[in-house]
User: Which sequence fits this backbone?
C-alpha cells in the first residue's frame, strides 16, 4: 500500500491555521514593541536626571517627579510591611492548619479567589469609606493608601505563598513530626525556611502590581498637587502612576513629553523588580 | 555531663540474631492488645496482639496492604496525622497507654524514633539535620558532641566528619538513610521504628544498614516493617506475619496477624499453613 | 536448639511519658494565623458594607427604576438626572472592543503555545506575555490616547473618524492588556487535557490542526470559557485606560468612535472632585460602585465554578 502525501486540503487549511496562530502571538508582541518604542521616543527629550530630582511645577520646563517617586517608595514600602506578614500568615493557616471540610475555611478560600478579581477601583471605594473618611478617618495619607493597596494585593501574596508552601514535600513534615516537633515548630523551622524563595518571588510580583496601581489611589486623594516628599505615614502623597496621569491630563504638549519620561522611569523600576524576582527564583528555587 | 546513651545497658556482642526464643524475662517495651485501627470507621487492621522487647529486632512481614505500616505508625501516634483515623485497644509503652486522653502525641514521638521508606533528610546541612531534634526538644549538652555521637552510632561519622556543614542532599541514598537513622538516634529514644528502610536502596547500602541494625540492637528496641523475607530472616529476633482478610460482603480488607513468634520458628517451623505458604514463596 | 541470650541487665529505666501540656503557644499561633486568613472575609464584608449604606440612601432619593433604566446621567446638574444607562452602555462598548482583541488572539496564542510551540520557544514567549500583563494601566491609557488614536484617525475609512477621546482605542488597548490572561488560563486548561486523548487522535491519522481544534479545545472548554468570563470581568472593571482615553462625558451610544464615560471612569472622576460626605453626588460613587461590584462578582463566581469543573474532571 503506498503512503499518500499530505492532502492538498490539509496543506492549505493547516497552513492557514498555523498562520492565524502566529498572528495571535504577533499582535501581543508587536503591540508591546510599538508601545515601548513610542513611549521612549516621546519621552526622550526629557529623559534626564531632572525628572528624578525636580518637583512638579506648573512650568513644564522645571517639573520633575521626585515627590511622586518618593511617594511611591513610601506607599509601596508600607504596603509591603502590612501585606506580607498577613498574606504569609493566611497562607500558612490555609495550607497547614485548615480543615477543608469546615465551611468557614471554604468561605475563606472562595473569598480570596473572588477578591483577586474585584476591580481595583472598588478597593479605592473601600479605602475611601473606611480608611480616609469613616471608621479610621486617616485622611488622604500615606497610611490610608498603604492599607488600601495592601488589601488589593493581599490575594496575590496569599496565592503565591500557598504555592510555595505546597511545594515543600510532605516527607519533610513527617520527618520533623516523627522527631517530636510540634506542628508550629515544624512549620517555623522546616516548612517556612524551605518556602522562602517562592514567597519572596510572589511578594515581589505583588508589589510590582502595587507600584503600577493608580485607580484606587485616585479616590484616596493622590491627585492633589504635591510638591514635597512625604514626611511620615500621615503625610499627603502622590505616586508615580498618578503623577503620570496628572501630566497626561494637561493640555500642553510638554507635559505629555514629561509623562512619557516618567513612564520610562516607572517601566525601568518594574523591570528591575521583576528581574530581581526572576533572579531569586532561578537561583534559590529548590527542585525537590 | 553524663551521657545517658553511653550508659545504656548493652547486650553482649556476637550474639546471634535468632536467639530470643523464650518469652522475654523483662517487661516488653511495647505491648499491644486487641488493637484495631480504622479509617472513617472502616477497620484497616484488627485483633492486633504484639510485644516488642528491648534489645530485640521485631519484624513485621506479609504481603502488601496488610496493615504492617499502619500498626507501626500506632507506636508513635503518627496515625493521628491522618484525618479520620481512630485507634482502639491498648498500646502500652513501658506499661503506659499512649492513647490515653491525657497523653500528648508530641511527647510520645520524642521517645520513639522513626525512619521512613524513602530517605527524607531536611534541606539543611548534615549537622543541622542531626541537631534539629535535640534543639527542638530542648536537650541540654554540647551540640557538637551530640551530633558526633549520633553519627558514630549510625556508622556515618567517618564518612561525613569533614563535611558536616554541607547540604545533606549531596549524599548518596544509602548515606542519606543512615543520616535519617542518626537523626532519629540523636533524640535518644529507646525504640526505633523502621518502615521498609532499605526498599529504596541498592543491595550494598542495604547490607550496610542491616549490619547497622544488628549493632543498634545492642542498645535499642527496633521494629522493622519489611517486604524482604530474607532480610527479616537475617536480621530479626521475632517476626509477626500479617495477612489480609476480606470481610463478609467482600467490601473491606482488614489486616491481622496470623502468627507472631521467634524468627527461627516462623521461618523453619511455622504453626500456621498460611505462614508457611508465604515464607516458602508459594504465595506472593 | 537456641541459646538464650542474656537480655542482660534490665532494659533502661522505663521512660515516663510527659503529661500532655496544654501547649497554649500552639493554640495562640493557630488563632493568629486564622485571623490573618479571616482578613479576606473582612475585606469582602467591608466592601459590601461600604457600598450598601450609601447605595441604600441613594436609592431612597432616586427610584431604582430611574437609576437602572434612565438614559440621562447628569448627577451634578440642577435638576439632576440619575439614569445609569449611558455609563453601562459605554462599559459594554469598550468591553466589546476589548473582547474582539483578547478572545481570538488570546485563544490563538494559547493554542500555539500549548500544541505547536517547541519547549524552548514556549519558555521564551511566556515571559513576554507576562510582561504585557504587568505593564501599568496608566501606560496603556497614555498609549491609547497618544499613539493609537491618531493612527485610527488616519486609517479610518467610513463615517466620522474617531474623536480625540473614543471608546475604540481604549477598548483595543485594553484587549491587548487582557490577552495574556486569556492566553494563560486557556493554556492551563489545555495542558490539563491528558496526553492520552491526543495520542489516540494522532494514532488515527489526525493532523495537528484537527487535534487542536476538535480534541483539545473541546476537552478544555470549561477552562477556556472561564478565561473568557474572567476577561470580561477585567474589562468591565478597568479604570485608568478608559479614564485617559475614552472620555469624561456620559454618552448613550453604541458607536465606538465616539467619546463616552464608563462606570469606572465616572467613579474615578467623581472621586477626583471633592464631594462632601453624604451628599447625593457623593452617594453616586457608591451606587455605581455597587452596580460594578455586583456585575463583576457574578462573573467571578461563574468563572470560579467553571475552573473547578474542569479541574475535577482531570485531576
Assistant:
Amino acid at each position: 500500500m503506498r503512503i499518500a502525501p499530505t492532502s492538498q486540503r490539509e496543506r492549505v487549511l493547516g497552513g492557514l491555521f498555523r498562520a492565524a496562530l502566529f498572528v495571535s502571538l504577533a499582535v501581543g508582541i508587536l503591540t508591546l514593541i510599538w508601545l515601548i518604542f513610542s513611549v521612549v521616543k516621546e519621552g526622550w527629550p526629557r529623559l534626564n536626571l531632572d525628572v528624578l530630582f525636580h518637583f512638579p511645577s506648573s512650568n513644564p520646563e522645571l517639573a520633575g517627579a521626585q515627590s511622586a517617586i518618593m511617594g511611591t517608595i513610601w506607599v509601596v514600602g508600607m504596603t509591603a510591611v502590612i501585606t506580607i506578614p498577613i498574606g504569609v500568615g493566611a497562607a500558612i493557616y490555609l495550607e497547614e492548619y485548615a480543615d477543608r471540610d469546615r465551611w468557614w475555611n471554604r468561605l475563606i478560600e472562595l473569598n480570596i479567589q473572588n477578591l483577586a478579581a474585584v476591580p481595583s477601583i472598588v478597593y479605592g471605594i473601600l479605602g475611601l469609606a473606611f480608611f480616609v473618611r469613616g471608621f479610621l478617618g486617616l485622611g488622604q495619607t500615606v497610611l490610608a493608601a498603604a492599607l488600601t493597596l495592601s488589601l488589593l494585593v493581599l490575594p496575590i501574596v496569599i496565592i503565591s505563598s500557598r504555592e510555595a508552601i505546597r511545594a515543600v514535600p510532605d516527607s519533610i513534615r513527617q520527618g520533623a513530626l516523627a522527631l517530636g516537633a510540634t506542628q508550629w515548630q515544624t512549620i517555623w523551622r522546616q516548612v517556612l525556611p524551605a518556602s522562602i524563595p517562592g514567597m519572596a518571588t510572589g511578594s515581589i510580583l505583588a508589589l510590582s502590581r502595587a507600584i503600577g496601581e493608580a485607580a484606587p489611589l485616585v479616590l484616596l486623594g493622590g491627585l492633589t498637587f504635591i510638591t514635597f516628599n512625604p514626611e511620615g505615614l500621615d503625610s499627603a502623597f502622590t505616586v508615580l502612576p498618578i503623577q503620570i496621569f496628572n501630566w497626561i491630563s494637561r493640555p500642553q504638549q510638554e507635559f505629555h513629553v514629561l509623562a512619557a519620561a516618567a513612564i520610562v522611569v516607572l517601566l525601568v523600576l518594574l523591570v528591575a523588580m521583576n528581574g530581581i524576582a526572576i533572579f531569586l527564583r532561578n537561583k534559590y528555587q529548590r527542585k525537590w | 555531663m553524663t551521657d545517658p546513651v553511653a550508659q545504656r545497658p548493652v547486650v553482649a556482642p556476637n550474639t546471634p540474631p535468632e536467639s530470643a526464643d523464650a518469652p522475654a524475662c523483662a517487661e516488653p517495651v511495647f505491648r499491644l492488645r486487641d488493637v484495631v485501627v480504622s479509617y472513617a470507621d472502616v477497620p484497616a487492621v484488627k485483633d492486633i496482639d504484639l510485644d516488642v522487647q528491648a534489645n530485640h529486632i521485631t519484624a513485621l512481614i506479609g504481603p502488601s496492604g496488610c496493615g504492617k505500616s499502619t500498626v507501626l505508625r500506632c507506636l508513635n501516634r503518627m496515625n493521628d496525622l491522618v484525618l479520620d483515623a481512630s485507634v482502639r485497644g491498648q498500646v502500652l509503652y513501658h506499661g503506659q497507654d499512649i492513647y490515653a486522653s491525657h497523653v500528648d502525641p508530641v511527647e510520645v514521638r520524642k521517645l520513639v524514633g522513626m525512619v521512613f521508606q524513602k530517605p527524607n533528610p531536611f534541606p539543611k546541612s548534615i549537622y543541622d539535620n542531626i541537631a534539629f531534634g535535640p534543639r527542638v526538644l530542648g536537650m541540654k549538652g554540647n551540640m557538637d558532641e551530640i551530633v558526633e555521637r549520633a553519627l558514630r552510632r549510625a556508622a556515618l561519622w567517618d564518612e561525613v566528619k569533614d563535611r558536616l556543614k554541607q547540604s545533606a542532599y549531596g549524599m548518596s541514598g544509602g548515606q542519606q538513610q543512615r543520616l535519617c537513622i542518626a537523626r532519629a538516634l540523636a533524640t535518644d529514644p529507646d525504640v526505633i521504628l523502621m518502615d521498609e528502610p532499605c526498599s529504596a536502596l541498592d543491595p550494598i547500602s542495604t547490607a550496610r544498614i542491616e549490619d547497622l541494625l544488628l549493632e543498634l540492637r545492642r542498645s535499642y528496641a527496633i521494629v522493622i516493617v519489611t517486604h524482604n523475607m530474607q532480610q527479616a530472616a537475617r536480621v530479626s529476633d521475632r517476626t509477626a506475619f500479617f495477612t489480609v482478610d476480606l470481610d463478609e460482603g467482600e467490601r473491606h480488607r482488614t489486616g491481622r496477624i496470623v502468627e507472631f513468634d521467634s524468627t527461627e520458628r516462623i521461618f523453619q517451623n511455622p504453626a500456621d499453613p498460611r505462614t508457611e505458604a508465604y515464607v516458602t514463596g508459594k504465595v506472593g | 536448639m537456641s541459646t538464650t541470650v542474656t537480655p542482660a541487665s534490665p532494659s533502661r529505666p522505663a521512660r515516663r511519658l510527659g503529661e500532655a501540656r496544654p501547649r497554649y503557644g500552639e493554640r495562640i499561633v493557630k488563632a493568629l494565623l486564622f485571623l490573618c486568613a479571616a482578613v479576606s472575609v473582612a475585606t469582602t464584608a467591608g466592601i459590601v458594607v461600604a457600598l450598601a449604606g450609601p447605595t441604600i440612601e441613594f436609592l431612597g432619593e432616586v427610584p431604582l427604576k430611574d437609576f437602572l433604566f434612565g438614559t440621562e446621567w447628569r448627577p451634578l446638574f440642577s435638576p439632576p438626572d440619575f439614569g445609569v444607562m449611558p455609563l453601562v452602555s459605554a462599559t459594554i462598548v469598550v468591553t466589546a472592543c476589548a473582547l474582539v482583541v483578547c478572545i481570538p488572539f488570546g485563544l490563538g496564542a494559547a493554542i500555539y503555545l500549548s500544541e505547536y510551540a517547541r519547549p524552548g520557544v514556549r519558555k521564551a514567549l511566556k515571559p513576554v506575555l507576562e510582561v504585557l500583563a504587568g505593564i501599568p494601566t496608566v501606560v496603556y491609557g497614555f498609549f491609547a490616547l497618544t499613539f493609537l488614536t491618531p493612527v485610527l484617525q488616519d486609517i479610518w475609512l467610513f463615517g466620522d473618524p474617531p474623536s480625540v477621546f473614543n471608546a475604540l482605542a481604549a477598548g483595543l488597548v485594553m484587549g491587548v492588556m487582557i490577552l495574556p490572561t486569556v492566553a494563560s488560563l486557556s493554556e492551563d486548561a489545555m495542558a490539563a487535557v491528558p496526553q492520552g486523548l491526543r495520542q489516540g487522535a494522532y494514532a488515527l491519522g489526525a493532523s495537528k490542526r484537527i487535534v487542536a481544534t476538535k480534541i483539545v479545545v473541546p476537552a478544555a472548554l470549561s477552562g477556556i470559557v472561564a478565561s473568557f468570563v474572567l476577561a470580561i470581568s477585567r474589562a468591565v472593571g478597568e479604570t485608568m485606560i478608559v479614564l485617559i482615553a475614552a472620555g469624561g462625558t456620559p454618552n448613550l451610544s453604541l458607536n465606538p468612535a465616539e467619546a463616552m464615560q464608563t462606570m469606572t471612569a465616572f467613579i474615578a472622576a467623581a472621586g477626583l472632585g471633592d464631594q462632601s460626605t453624604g451628599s447625593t453626588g457623593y452617594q453616586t460613587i457608591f451606587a455605581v460602585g455597587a452596580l460594578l461590584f455586583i456585575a463583576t462578582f457574578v462573573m467571578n463566581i461563574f468563572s470560579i465554578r467553571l475552573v473547578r469543573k474542569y479541574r475535577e474532571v482531570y485531576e
Residues 1-24 of chain B have pLDDT under 50 and may be disordered. Chain B is about 30% helix and 25% strand. Strands of chain B lie at 30-39, 42-52, 57-61, 85-93, 96-97, 112-115, 191-195, 221-225, 238-246, 253-262. Residues 134 and 260 of chain B are 35 Å apart (CA to CA).
